[in-house]
Amino acid sequence: MTLSYHIASSEKMPQRQPIPLLGKDCVIKSNVPLAPLTSFRVGGPAEWYVTPKRLDQLQASFQFANYKGLPITFLGAGSNILVSDSGLSGLVIGSRYLRHISFEQETGLLSVGAGEFLPRLAWKAARMGWQGLEWAVGIPGTVGGAVVMNAGAQGKCMADVLVNAHVILPNGEIDILSPQDLEYNYRYSKLQGKSILVAQATFQLQPGEKPALITAITSENFQKRKSTQPYHLPSCGSVFRNPGPKTAGWLIEQAGLKGYQIGMAQVAHRHANFILNCGGATANEILQLIYHVQEQVEKQWSLLLKPEVKFVGDF
């Protein structure tokens, strides 16, 4: 199959030289602002940006990047990422439109596209009475990002329910990886930092006939998370990994950093492991605040907090 590409440049960028088409309903755009596409609401533009809706379009996006010699960055819900103020060079592939859900009643298998929003999926499973994703209702990200990060809450994580993940390799080929292949650990998989994109995931859940009960448990988990974490201002979710046995939030709070602010970036009062954009914060201000928190916690506890949020771009 011969692939071609269609390029749409923004008014801020000069017209690019025509290159082979990608598909009429999957347009590669240049100089696309990324701040509105991240939960922090900060960051500069993408040199190139595309949102494939189908597997063939996703593979073609990889071909485009390889043809042009461009680095690739993946962007799901933008909830666990800090994009630099200067933006991102190369091709940013947005997975938010890779959406499909398939429930197999007999086996309890749930196959879902990487762009599905994890809380929405948790609610859908709960209303059907399927058990296994109640813990995921408050995690603000996509399925693909959750698989890569081994996202978790309430003592559960992706490794507990994942059967396999269909991924696109840097050469555009498809591979199917098991949890063992992913080498899962706490908030870790071997996909982190690699140009491998999760396209689809399959989970093992437990179908049942008590949707009211599963929905109630899911709702309780969501209310608990909502009452203890700040949802009123932009953030990336938890900034640091919990080092154990104490949580990162507890260590930051004991260091007296709740409410500490650099520019318009602030350590949240409600939960110290959250950094908030109080309006007009820059990525650099958020990064400097992250460094300050690490420095103060290390000074008091002789422990270096490791960021859970991913830094992308030139800082």
Automatic annotation (TrEMBL):
Keywords: Cell cycle, Cell division, Cell shape, Cell wall biogenesis/degradation, Cytoplasm, FAD, Flavoprotein, NADP, Oxidoreductase, Peptidoglycan synthesis. Gene3D superfamilies: 3.30.465.10, UDP-N-acetylenolpyruvoylglucosamine reductase, C-terminal domain, Uridine Diphospho-n-acetylenolpyruvylglucosamine Reductase, domain 2. It is an enzyme of class 1 (oxidoreductase). The keyword Cytoplasm applies. Pathway: Cell wall biogenesis; peptidoglycan biosynthesis. Its EC number is 1.3.1.98. This is UDP-N-acetylenolpyruvoylglucosamine reductase. It comes from Trichodesmium erythraeum (strain IMS101).
